[in-house]
Backbone:
């Protein structure tokens, strides 16, 4: 279903009004062409009415005003809770490292190796946090699109929030290339990065 | 390899700063300072004397790549070894970083051995 922008600035209300106006000018017997045009216009009118009903049934004002912000808040809470848990794990690891200083030989080495592995595993929190931030951005984009459709088809419905502004034009190369973690298989591995860097030497 | 040199780690995730600091400590690097974005890092670099920068990419108000470019454009800092540690793993990111003068590039999540290996390589003790 096209949104307001896809209609080139022509609102569904304007289309409906045009259909009614054309129908009002048609009197007497219709030619084949006029009948075909009439049928198409009637179909267009039905499509517009159905679209309006479908959008109303979606309750876009609830999605934009409540559901999506609530989902964003939940994801923010996930990031916050995992950060807290990760820092508690790090607290324990640092305590273990202090204990390690009093050990010698294989025990000290085993403890050191275990702590290192925990540090490595804890870096998940950074990557998952960035992934969740990408999801929140996607949700906000969906919210903006819903608001645009809602404004175009159902002007009587309250608009939940203004769409997010487009990215500033003067972004640096670093900002343009900052896209967050790639999905598995979409980025290059450390080995491939090493080979790529070596190819410059 | 001089393990008494000053290391600046730059990341907007406090937890990641803590993890990298602890991993550096295990490698006997004790002189570690932190910054939470490129702008803060640049100010610390210009005010201090650092022998190694380990930076994330995705930060505001200044990204790691933009920090790297500033460092390479600064006549006092331009020889400072600079390792990027980031979740940005597209080829174009690696190429952009290399063209900007990055010393090495580590993709997150990473392990301690990779960090040790890259540090040794950029500090000339491979």
Residues:
């Amino acid at each position: 279903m096209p949104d307001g922008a896809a209609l080139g600035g022509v609102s569904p209300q304007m289309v409906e009004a045009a259909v009614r106006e054309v129908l009002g000018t048609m009197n007497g017997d219709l030619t084949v062409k006029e009948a075909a045009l009439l049928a198409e216009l009637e179909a267009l009118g039905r499509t517009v009415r159905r679209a309006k009903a479908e959008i109303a049934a979606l309750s876009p004002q609830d999605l934009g005003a409540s559901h999506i912000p609530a989902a964003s808040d939940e994801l923010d809470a996930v990031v916050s809770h995992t950060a807290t848990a990760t820092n508690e794990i790090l607290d324990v690891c640092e305590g273990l490292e202090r204990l390690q200083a009093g050990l010698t030989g294989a025990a000290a080495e085993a403890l050191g190796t275990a702590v290192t592995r925990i540090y490595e595993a804890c870096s998940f929190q950074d990557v998952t946090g960035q992934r969740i931030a990408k999801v929140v951005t996607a949700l906000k984009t969906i919210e903006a699109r819903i608001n645009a459709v809602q404004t175009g088809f159902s002007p009587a419905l309250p608009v939940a929030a203004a769409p997010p502004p487009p990215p500033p034009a003067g972004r640096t190369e670093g900002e343009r290339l900052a896209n967050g973690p790639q999905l598995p298989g979409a980025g290059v591995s450390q080995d491939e990065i090493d080979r790529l860097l070596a190819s410059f030497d | 390899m001089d393990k008494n040199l000053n290391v600046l780690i730059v990341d907007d995730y406090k937890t990641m700063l803590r993890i990298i600091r602890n991993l550096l400590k295990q490698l006997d690097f004790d002189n570690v300072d932190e910054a939470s974005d490129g702008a803060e890092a640049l100010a610390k670099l210009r005010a201090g004397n650092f022998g190694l920068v380990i930076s994330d990419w995705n930060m505001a108000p200044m990204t790691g790549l933009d920090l790297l470019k500033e460092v390479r454009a600064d006549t006092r800092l331009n020889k400072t070894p600079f390792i990027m540690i980031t979740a940005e793993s597209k080829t174009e990111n690696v190429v952009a970083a290399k063209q900007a003068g990055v010393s090495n590039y580590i993709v997150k999540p990473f392990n301690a051995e990779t960090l040790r290996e890259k540090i040794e390589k950029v500090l000339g003790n491979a």
Observations:
- Chain B has one domain: 7-122.
